[in-house]
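pasting Flagellar biosynthetic protein FliR for the record, 252 residues
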Amino acid sequence: MSFTIDFGWLEAVMLASVRMVAFLVIAPPFSSNAFPIRIKAVLSVGLALAVAPIVSTSYVSPDLGGFVLELILEVVVGLLLGFLVMVVFSAIQSAGNLVDLFGGFQLAQAFDPQMMINGAQFTRLFQMTALVLLFASNGYQFIIGGLTRSFTAIPIGGGIDFAAPMKVLTDAVGGMLLSSLQIAGPLIVVLFLADAGLGLLTRVAPALNAFALGFPIKILITLTLASTVFLAMPHIVEAVTGDSIEALVGVR
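structre below
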């Protein structure tokens, strides 16, 4: 009884699993420390087996040196794709950071080792809410689907033109900044008007010392109006997920 091993197929699956595990290490929601590294490794192998019919058809087995170079290239590609998704999802975290900054919560920032983010209350709350909605709406499945379609855009061992991902990354950073302002913009405007009103009140009646009430008033306004952002959070997560998939399949 003999067994034949297709080393070309095995090498293609190994390279695909390397790209996927590099992606899962850095891309949300899988980058959270709530996912042990062993779970990420097993998930990457399972996904690599799922895309084996796609990656093995056009793969040509190189020599040992060429295989090592392709291995390094797949790590770079996986990290690059994961970074693109992380940049897009950072819009929600950046919006929370803006709310903390203008609402007076910035002094209470701390590092969250579970989520691997550094921020105050609304920064972490926005990020946790986005991840919960991502799993509740099965949006993570679309991200995995975009990752599997990346093997069609960037075949195993086919190389990559770094001009295309750099353009996508530049657009993603600009879109992230714009999205964060759109998410937190209305609340920031209200807080700015509150500061302007307190300034005018201080000029009219200096004895009142209106700025002494500034912090509790701004905190009250922030806690009251932040609920409007949470009402729009499902639509925000849906839009961010769509942008992440476009970034994944847009790299050539």
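Helices lie at 7-26, 37-50, 52-55, 64-103, 121-136, 139-153, 163-204, 214-250.
The chain has a mean pLDDT of 78.
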